[in-house]
Amino acid sequence: MGAITNRINEGSNITKREREILSLIAEGIKNAEIAERLFISPRTVEAHKTHLLKKLKLKCTAELACFAVSYKRELKNIMN
């Protein structure tokens, strides 16, 4: 496992739903579409993103997006 996967797995308490949202962020999907796909409100998506920022000790949504892309890349490498 890579550093990013370890960061998520160890001590960050990322929920399954937060992982789903992280994966969708990595695909470049906007909040409204994430909400639609997961059958939740856009405000709930924002709440999950806020929780992710705090848990991952990130400063802004741009950092979260970069983290999400790196996480997705790492997971893809693990699966192959």
CATH fold node name: Arc Repressor Mutant, subunit A
* CATH homology-level superfamily: Winged helix-like DNA-binding domain superfamily/Winged helix DNA-binding domain
- CATH domain class: Mainly Alpha
Helix content: over 70%
What characterizes the major β-sheet? Answer: none
**How many β-strands, per DSSP?**
0
Structural class: mainly alpha
The radius of gyration is 12 Å
How much of the sequence is in beta strands? under 5%
- Overall pLDDT level: 87
Oligomer: single chain
**Distance between the amino and carboxyl termini:** 12 Å
Name the poorly predicted regions: none
How many separate helices?
A: 5
Dominant shape: globular
Instruction: Give the helices and strands as they follow along the chain.
Output: HHHHH
How would you sum up this structure in a few lines?
This protein is mainly alpha-helical.
Features:
mainly alpha; Arc Repressor Mutant, subunit A; 5 helices
List the helices and strands and how they pair.
Blueprint: H1 3-9, H2 16-26, H3 31-38, H4 42-55, H5 61-79
Give structural notes:
- The protein is mostly helical.
- It has one domain: Winged helix-like DNA-binding domain superfamily/Winged helix DNA-binding domain (Arc Repressor Mutant, subunit A, Orthogonal Bundle).
- Helix content is 74%, strand content 0%.
- It is built from five helices and no strands.
- Helix 2 crosses helix 5 and helix 3 packs across helix 4.
- The protein is globular.
- It starts with a helix and ends with a helix.
- The model has no long low-confidence stretch (mean pLDDT 87).
